Amino acid sequence: MSTALAWLKKHACPPIRYRTVRDLLGERPDAELHAAVRAWPNALGIVTRQDADGTWGGRLHTAAITRPYLCTEACLRRLLDLGWDATDPAVDLALRSPHLLGRPLDEPVATLDPTAAVAGSDLRAALLAEAGRANDLHIRNYAATVAEGLVATFHAWAHGRPLWHHRGRYAVLSHAVVWPTVYHLRLLACAPPAVKERVLSAVELVLAQPPPPGLRIEVNNRLWVPPTAVHAILLAPNHWLRLEGLTLAARAGWLQVSSDLLVKARWFLAQVDRDGHAQLDGKYPHFCSHTHGALEPDWRSQSRRRADWTFRIELLRAAMAAGRC
After folding, report:
1. 22: Cβ–Cβ under 8 A, 6 or more apart, which residues?
2. Nearest Cα residue to 186 out of 126, 261, 141
3. 120: which of 99, 109, 127, 250 lies 20 to 30 Å off by Cα?
4. Which of 298, 265, 304, 272 is CA-nearest to residue 4?
5. pTM of this prediction?
6. Which pLDDT tens digit goes with each residue over 188-209?
7. Please, are residues 291 and 233 in contact by the beta-carbon 8 Å criterion?
8. 62-87 mean pLDDT
9. HSE-CB for 238 with a 13 A CA cutoff
10. 3-7, 13-17, 60-64, 278-282: range with lowest mean pLDDT
């Protein structure tokens, strides 16, 4: 065990200690640590806001000004980041909710969110895969469809065919992938190796062709901004967002075929000291739907910041090692 992992296992907050043992060391957390994670105030605060139907606020995703993070996508992913899984009642209830997640992926979802029929499929598939349902047949099929759509779309673009149709319309309806979002990348990161392999030939094209400026889609006569594109996450100036995206890209196998992404990932690995600890500048990453947010409760503490950065970089290192980058 490296010095950094031993330090995280002993000194970090319960969620980081739990995930270090489970995700980085491949061990089974003991009962005391398991209980500490389930009693963690940040997680309990989310669970208490869950509705009886398993959703949060009856919404899959929302960017509303008031209480913008009270939606199923943000809250469920936050619980997963804090170390919860499908064995926990709150997560299981969300995954079984007929209101949002318990339907076929291509079936329109009637919710309070008017964009659900357009953006619902990719978000729901990514949530299910991240929650441990990646082996389900419909998740595998959806991931394969995403991979094939990316390959076909960007190879067509490489041969001079227009990439943007219908005024730059962003389409997920009927699994028609025009531009990959971070949700597609999360889905592919959890996909079987054969599915990941299908999209590797298009990765350089994905990164070379950013979405057009001002991309919008019309839903019920209202303009809506699509979810964050992969391009924006992987090339973001913000260290936190870029590290999140690169870790997903490493799990999806993209770093193997993109020298630019590999250089950016290795930059993070070079920021650790001799003992493997990392400390980067950056504002407190608040909990939101685009990134999990810090796990340590006191971001002003140098040791707490170091624990968060070290854990995230160790996740990147593990993903790169698994992909043999």
Report:
1. 28, 29, 83
2. 126
3. 250
4. 272
5. 0.87
6. 999 999 999 998 988 887 787 7
7. no
8. 80
9. 13
10. 60-64
Q: Can you read off the two tokens belonging to residue 289?
A: 């739907």
| Amino acid found at 245 | G
pLDDT of residue 173: 34
